[in-house]
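Hey,
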Amino acid sequence: MNRSRVAGYLFAIGAGATWGTTGVLSTALYHQGEDITGIGFWRVSLGVLGLLIYGLFHRDLFKVDLKGWLLIGAGGGLLVAIFEVAYPYAITGAGVAGAAALLYVAPVVVAILGRVVLGESLTPLRMFLAVLVMIGTTLTVNGGKLGAVLEGGPSHLVGVLAGLLAMLSYAGTTLLARWSVPRYGSIRSLFLELAGGVVMMGIFLTLFHRPPFAPPARPVGLAAWSYSLAQAIGPVVGANFLFFAGVRRIDAAPTAVAATVEPVVGTLLALILFGQQLTVWGWLGLLLVVGGVASSYWREARD
């Protein structure tokens, strides 16, 4: 058993589980009156602030060559900005579980692009498991109606399109992390991506006349800032550290498959907190996701 590969897989599972709280916290923020375009900006900004404080005591955090600033800071920052703006729209339009399901078309994309871009192995088993978890997340949300993602009103359609855009940015971030973490380290890579993301979001949201505003005054503002801080500590910084620790040890494709525990966590939290009920097909979908993740874990443990 390769302990490093198993540890990498467990790190990726931990990242997915932590990301699973994103939908719940974003919904809570939205209910507090926070504009959906500002949720991502403020949670990432708080994460960057924490890393800047860390950098005051570890100055090597800022020692990055031009290639790093361009590829990770600018390129990765753009991917972060796209995700942080698109995913809240996916949640509000397609629901917490729906957004998570759309996001996890990504393992299939990562498996294919991992072969093309990074030269990683694209085995039949990897592709099968990626497709399996994609079908599982779709069943979880749509109750056995695989075409239901195309149904619904304009707001639902916007949510679906936003979810697909978030999926593509997530896939791109996964591939970029697989390249950047071994070269620049987890903390430096995360700092560059998040700092670039804040700058990109600030520019784009302002250009589209949707500048992010701070949460309103107390007492509502206190709750909103608390939810934002929880997102910064958990889904933004904590989950990414776990994810980068995983992607350092295993290929991008199994990392993406392992992180599909996010829709399991997100859907169960939505079930418990918001009463978003699951059908028999939905429960079957969850079993497929868990089965796909477990099978991938078995493969990593065996290799």
